[in-house]
Amino acid sequence: MKSTFISREKNDVKFTMEFTGEEFEKAVIAAYQANKGKFAIDGFRKGKAPRTLIERHYGEDVFFEDAINELFSQNYFKALDELDINVIDRPNADFSEIKKGEGFTVTITVTAYPEFEVKDYNGVEIQKVENTVSDEDVDKELEVLQTRNARMVLAERPAKEGDTLLIDYAGFVGEEQFEGGTAERQPLKLGSNTFIPGFEEQLVGCSAGDEKDVVVTFPEEYHAENLAGKEAVFKCRVHEVKEEEKPELNDDFAKDISEFDTLEELKKDKKEKLEKAAQERAVNEMKNAVLEKIYDANDIEVPQVMVEDEIDGMMQEFDQQLRYQGMDLEKYFQYLGKEAKDFREELREEATKKTKTRMLISAIADAEKIEVTQEELEKEFELMAIQYKLEVEKIKSMLGAENIAALEKDLKMRKAVDLVYDKAVIK
């Protein structure tokens, strides 16, 4: 196969792949060997008929398509590599006349990655960001630990917001009890907003043993059409009122929930961790500020095919998030009365910005000849092994060559961001 570059207009690249008659004949023989079992010829068992008889019966081009497809798939990426073309879309192929035993030429037009020179990325001026940690921030962290280690105890008093009730309820629209509106001994934390708006507030002030009719109106966009917009009465009975009993903040608490012997040691550790996190946030904010400046300084064309790919990824990620909540994109669109194409358009601006930013970072990495060492890659594998509690070799085998290449590219991009941040002028 011989590959020849023809032209490039903006991002559209044209080149040819030429195959000799000998190469084509070998591919046809291979196609015959792979497919001969599919043909039935009188006097021959399946798979035993000679190629000449099959071609006489079905046409001499019977194996051409498979042969051409195989030649194309084997040589397309080889040609891209030889001609140093980085494509971002599927190719359009135009074939010359195909004849038995003769060579042919494929003329390919494909969208390639844009060529541009990134500018103004050295010495970017940004404002310094400082995130401080106060004693109040530390106290809030300790309150979280208290809440996490709290226990539920019966409250001998009327319920207030934040309490957890154990209730029975049955829902009615008019005189008719509706399906799915009944439960027994159902826990409900007042103020959690997990029930229909207005439901939880009406149970504030109830005590164990009380019965209460809770009157609510279902939202107009409620997923059950037979209930949407309708007024309903939930007949409720309160079995228990429980409140959180938080442990006292003292040395014993510190010993129980941490490796420290005193509350002061625990506080000090929390403050150090908060300060480290605050510093990391500040650095990330400044890195983003540098990227924003570079983004604004470079007016480059962003191919729509790359934007569409980014939107696909964003929608897939959102779909996964919805599935964790027991929903999916289709149900989400039905619930909102929205179509997928409208949602895609809402994502377009953000997807375009993400794509352009990634293009700029990649261009900086290339301009600065940034490489990822094997040592840096191994360190990343080790971090992943710790995160997922697996052996390093297991991580590598699970990732596979394609994902490892993507990880290497990601590390390269991170190093490029670090480089422009290190060269930034921080005021």
UniProtKB/TrEMBL annotation:
<keyword id="KW-0143">Chaperone</keyword>
<keyword id="KW-0413">Isomerase</keyword>
<keyword id="KW-0132">Cell division</keyword>
<feature type="domain" description="PPIase FKBP-type">
    <location>
        <begin position="162"/>
        <end position="244"/>
    </location>
</feature>
<dbReference type="InterPro" id="IPR027304">
    <property type="entry name" value="Trigger_fact/SurA_dom_sf"/>
</dbReference>
<dbReference type="GO" id="GO:0015031">
    <property type="term" value="P:protein transport"/>
</dbReference>
<keyword id="KW-0697">Rotamase</keyword>
<dbReference type="InterPro" id="IPR037041">
    <property type="entry name" value="Trigger_fac_C_sf"/>
</dbReference>
<comment type="similarity">
    <text>Belongs to the FKBP-type PPIase family. Tig subfamily.</text>
</comment>
<dbReference type="InterPro" id="IPR008881">
    <property type="entry name" value="Trigger_fac_ribosome-bd_bac"/>
</dbReference>
<dbReference type="GO" id="GO:0051083">
    <property type="term" value="P:'de novo' cotranslational protein folding"/>
</dbReference>
<protein>
    <recommendedName>
        <fullName>Trigger factor</fullName>
        <ecNumber>5.2.1.8</ecNumber>
    </recommendedName>
</protein>
<dbReference type="Pfam" id="PF05697">
    <property type="entry name" value="Trigger_N"/>
</dbReference>
<comment type="function">
    <text>Involved in protein export. Acts as a chaperone by maintaining the newly synthesized protein in an open conformation. Functions as a peptidyl-prolyl cis-trans isomerase.</text>
</comment>
<dbReference type="InterPro" id="IPR001179">
    <property type="entry name" value="PPIase_FKBP_dom"/>
</dbReference>
<dbReference type="GO" id="GO:0043022">
    <property type="term" value="F:ribosome binding"/>
</dbReference>
<dbReference type="Pfam" id="PF05698">
    <property type="entry name" value="Trigger_C"/>
</dbReference>
<dbReference type="InterPro" id="IPR008880">
    <property type="entry name" value="Trigger_fac_C"/>
</dbReference>
<dbReference type="GO" id="GO:0005737">
    <property type="term" value="C:cytoplasm"/>
</dbReference>
<dbReference type="InterPro" id="IPR005215">
    <property type="entry name" value="Trig_fac"/>
</dbReference>
<dbReference type="InterPro" id="IPR036611">
    <property type="entry name" value="Trigger_fac_ribosome-bd_sf"/>
</dbReference>
<dbReference type="InterPro" id="IPR046357">
    <property type="entry name" value="PPIase_dom_sf"/>
</dbReference>
<keyword id="KW-0963">Cytoplasm</keyword>
<dbReference type="GO" id="GO:0051301">
    <property type="term" value="P:cell division"/>
</dbReference>
<keyword id="KW-0131">Cell cycle</keyword>
<dbReference type="GO" id="GO:0043335">
    <property type="term" value="P:protein unfolding"/>
</dbReference>
<dbReference type="GO" id="GO:0003755">
    <property type="term" value="F:peptidyl-prolyl cis-trans isomerase activity"/>
</dbReference>
<dbReference type="GO" id="GO:0044183">
    <property type="term" value="F:protein folding chaperone"/>
</dbReference>
<dbReference type="Pfam" id="PF00254">
    <property type="entry name" value="FKBP_C"/>
</dbReference>
